[in-house]
Amino acid sequence: MRIEADREVCTSAGMCALTAPEWFDQDEDDGRVIVLDRVGEPDAAVEDAVELCPSGAIRLR
Ligand code: SF4
């Protein structure tokens, strides 16, 4: 499984970085999502972050 993030859709709400800080960070300039680790197996926190993201910018594939 892998995490995909659409930075064009991201509204910089920051729920992903709050919910799963080992996987997501926010760009210092515009606050948009940065996926920190695309190699490891996503855990439950990542699934929560996907559900909580208000813009639907992140997903698991
Ligand atoms: S929760 Fe969604 S909208 Fe907010 S920073 Fe993360 S990806 Fe962007």
From TrEMBL:
Pfam families: Fer4_13. InterPro entries: 3Fe4S_ferredoxin (IPR001080), Fe-S_cluster_ET (IPR051269). Coiled coil: none annotated. Signal peptide: none annotated. SUPFAM superfamilies: 4Fe-4S ferredoxins (SSF54862). Keywords: 3Fe-4S, Electron transport, Iron, Iron-sulfur, Metal-binding, Transport. Transmembrane segments: none annotated. Its cofactor is [3Fe-4S] cluster. The keyword Cytoplasm does not apply. PANTHER family: FERREDOXIN (PTHR36923). Ferredoxins are iron-sulfur proteins that transfer electrons in a wide variety of metabolic reactions. This is Ferredoxin.
